[in-house]
Amino acid sequence: MSKELTSKWGARALAPLAQVWTNPIIVKEVRTQMRGLRAFAILTGYLLGLGLLAYGLYRIILSRAFSYYGAGGAPQSAFVGQGVFIAMAFLELLFVCYVTPALTAGTISGEHERRTYDMLMATRLRPAAILWGKLVPALTYILLLILAAIPLSSIVFLFGGVAPRDMLQAITLLAVVAVTYGTLGVFFSALMRHTGRAMALSYGVVVALTGGTLFLWVAITSIRGVTAPVAVLYANPLSALSSAIIQTDAVGPVLGVIPFADVLYYQTGGPEVSAVRQVVAAARPLWQYTVAIYTAATLLLCLLTAQLVKPVRRWRLSGREITAYALTLVVLAGGLFAVFGTSLGSTGWTPLTPTPDSVILPVEPERVGVVAVAVATEAPVVVLPTPTPPPLPTPTAAPPPSPFDASEQAAEIEDYLGRQILPSAEPALCDLAVIDSQTEGITAVVFGWAYCRSFQVVDDQLFAGTMASGPVRLDMLYYHESGWQVEGLKYGELAAVWPDDLQEELLANPYDEADGEARVREKASGLLIGATP
User: Fold this and answer.
1) DSSP letters along 157-176, please?
2) Fewest CB within 10 A of the end CB: N or C in the chain?
3) At CA 238, angle to CA 250 and CA 295, rounded to 5?
4) Is a pLDDT exceeding 80 seen at residue 156?
């Protein structure tokens, strides 16, 4: 008896899901899409084009990595992997943004144009079932294209530099954008009942969200002379993808919010470009706001489209519909509060060790004393003897310069590198790994790898900002008064800064940027907020 009750309750729980996938409209549309050669031709062409573009970008980025890091090595491999992954993610997003509306804008309006809509309404299907029957097949094909590109995108793991979390965030954002823009096309199709008008309105909204918000952000920044609020880009899917695949901090580079800046960063500028591009970003990554906005918009469009599909009494809701809509809104509000009202889901930034609690120190009372005042009296006139000039000292030779020791000069050199490599309002700290130093008389040359990071203290918490990492050459000169001082700096491409033998040594023992990051954060904790991690 208990088994029968369990099976009955399980059947009732799975009944709504079974009705969705046994919807006759879904079955008919999916069979129509996948029976011919058109769907497989589009899928093959899409993957082939994406693969060719990825290979072309790989060759371009490889040349940049070679000029910056030299031949081979872990830094070059990670550089190539990140560049190819970012470029492929943007290509897939553009495909989703500008193909999805074309697949869904004619779903409902096509039935009106073929004069089969009345026959569809004569069936026993509810308006919500008709909506799902038209929306699910189109979105299924788009999601199939996204999933089919995952094996091709996974090639970047062979190079390194990309974490599985980055891949998961990019795929999640692509799926959310596809569902939202697909729902947008169905909404305009039901509203206008004309495929051409529905497609025009759908693409108008997509262009406004992708290009209009970015243009507005640039215009506000240019007019005001200060960086515009990042909230202007919350609805921009391109900026959201930049935020999802480029790690941003509370004060981070423009690469985290401006689309295609990271693609150009990996193809034209190299790592040193980020040292001069800076903007104040939100504490929580931008893509989380985009996902929340698109999720809410998708649910709202589905509710409106379900009413537009009705032939009569579109806006007269039954008690069941009111209950379902209210429950949907409550679940949406609860989910948004759980993510944005609490610390759940926050993957944007992690503050360093906080400043210790303030300590009340005793204040010493001011000491009050009696000050004696001298009274001026007339002094007697005294005749002083004429002084005899002292003998001039015998000139001696200047002392020879002290031997150059990179460890003794490390603090001064790192402070100099922080001011030169990351010249900004925020303090920058550097870690210098000396590879070789050569001394000749009063001159010395230092070859090393510099890892620099800017920091900012906000609300007694330390946040990391812009990062720069690369080879340096320092020209030192000895002064008798002040000792060894930096006279020149070269920072940039490896081949232009280091000799060949040192390049080979770096390839054999590459600089560990993770250790460098830990050291500069430790320095920042002690110098800027007075805490030790």
Assistant:
1) GGT----HHHHHHHHHHHHH
2) N
3) 85
4) yes
